[in-house]
Amino acid sequence: MRLAVAPASADRSATPLLVVLVDKGRHAKLPGGALGARAAGLTGPKKPFEGDLRQTLMLHAESRGGPRALLLLGMGKVSELEAEDFRRAGAIAARQAAELGANAVTITCGGKVKLDATTLGAMGEGAVLAEHRYPKPRAGAKPPASATIVTSLKGAAGVLKQARRLADGANLARELGDMPGNMATPRHLADTARKIGKRHGLRCKIHGKKDLERMKMGGILGVNQGSAQPPFLIELDYKPANYKRTICVVGKGLTFDAGGISIKPAAHMDEMKYDMCGGAATLGLMEAIGALKPKGVRVIGIVPTTENLLGANAYKPGDVLTTANGKTIEVMNTDAEGRVILSDALHHATKFKPDAIIDMATLTGAIVVALGHEAAGVFCADEKLQQRLVAAGARTGEKVWPMPTYDVYRDQIKGRFGDIKNAAGRDGGSCTAAQFLFHFTEGFPHAHIDIAGAAWGSRKRDYYVDGASGFGVRLLFDAITNWR
Questions:
Q1: Which residue in 378, 483, 351, 372 sits closest to 434, CA to CA?
Q2: Averaged over 275-290, what is the pLDDT?
Q3: Half-sphere exposure of residue 317: CA atoms within 13 angstroms, side-chain side
Q4: N or C of the chain: less Cβ packing under 10 Å?
Q5: Could you report the per-residue pLDDT of 111-159, keeping only the tens digit for each?
Q6: Could you tell me which residues come within 8 angstroms of residue 452 by beta carbon, excluding any fewer than 6 positions away?
Q7: Distance CA 286, CA 296 (A)
């Protein structure tokens, strides 16, 4: 979707669809009132329109000259408006345009609703996020509508450019997540990383199986043993001049998870193609970083990627794996494989001596039980880093909720035949999984974000669609670029 800005006169032009954002109050009622002039010559169910949040009223033109359709979109009380409300408004406008078959939509504010840089950017994000479809429309299909937002805000074009790039990154993550496992293979993720690197001038390094053997990455290699697909460790490095800090982002790239020898139930196993959504979000983030080129921060995206299948050589419960940092993992459950491949990737991240390490992983079903699909759980012993992520979640609508990191959870994963075991039972499953990961980043601020619920499965609404959500791209871009 193309995003553009226009002066106030644009809301009177012959646009296919005019969307007016209206706050709650008497002036919003139809007919008459402040909106009466815009509604003149339009037909439809002219029922009382109060302007409640997300309330809509569609009117259609009987003659040409002005907008062919007018959508009144309620924004509720102005004093209670948040950026997320504008993000959803942009999405509703884009979806209504698609339903009408309109090739353009103009969005303007009515009543007391006003735009600033934050809410304008949010609206642009919502409009582009709402256009995502997988599979993509066939060649020759009608392109999505362009969106023009009426505003006199200085620098509005730049704000919308950033919004578009961020949404493009999130939509890339969605596309990768939605692709079937026979298409979004580890090699496909590696090829996607190469294209991102080439497109934006990022250093891209793909470590193949022989490299992993040389690097003694027994975690990734162990999980990969049951698969015919080769494993990779993907590395994308954005390194601007005169950077002041380094952030490593690590994303779990398990392209299909059958559970290994500890096989999953057949029901819903098709959804295990989504087990690479952390890796997909990391690639989407690097796409946005490469396109927008923020100053002052080096960002390194790292994705360990493999399948977890059953085969003659598959790793087994009771096996002991030696990781790149020398610690040994006692395998209790081969379906707790995400933390095993992340062990090597997180240790690799420490070699860059970063100011912070942030990982995203569809790690545990337990976090879905705790938080559902509305938020991700963040596990972090560094209070400042945790606060940055929580604040970024509030700004972007990609909410994260702080979870406990008590030492007792660390005690529960002490191994008998290895240093640590990869599973400690159902109780506190997300918390023990986080403590497992912290073994491989000791000495560095580390936030683990369990996105198992947030990455897919949320109900379809506004800019949320069926399938992958792209969660994490906008969250981490905001956190990284607003580092204080």
A1: 378
A2: 98
A3: 10
A4: C
A5: 899 999 999 999 999 999 998 888 877 666 677 789 999 999 999 999 9
A6: 361, 362, 363, 364, 365, 367, 368
A7: 15
**Paired tokens of 258:** 């059958």
Fold classified for 169-481: Aminopeptidase (3.40.630)
Q: What is the average pLDDT across 73-96?
A: 95
Tokens 């027994």 correspond to: 218
What's the chain's Rg over C-alpha atoms?
24
DSSP 324: T
Residue 57 token pair = 């009223």
The pair of three-digit structure tokens given for residue 199, joined into one six-digit string: 């497109």
Is the pLDDT at 37 greater than 60? The verdict is no
Please tell me the predicted confidence (pLDDT) of residue 28: 56
Superfamily of domain 3-150: Leucine Aminopeptidase, subunit E, domain 1 (3.40.220.10)
- Would you please indicate which residues are annotated as catalytic (active-site) residues? 264, 339
For the chain, domain boundaries: 3-150, 169-481
pTM of the model: 0.94
Q: Which residues pair with 414 in a beta bridge?
A: 420
Three-state helix/strand/coil letters over 136-151: CCCCCCCCCCEEEEEC
Report the distance separating Cα 223 and Cα 209, nearest Å. 12
Residue 440 to residue 216: CA distance in whole angstroms? 14
- The residues, any chain, with a CB within 8 Å of residue 315's CB and separated by 6 or more, are 222, 223, 225, 226, 260, 261, 321, 331, 334
Q: What's the pLDDT tens digit per position in 159-184?
A: 999 999 999 999 999 999 999 999 99
Bridge partners, residue 362, by sequence: none
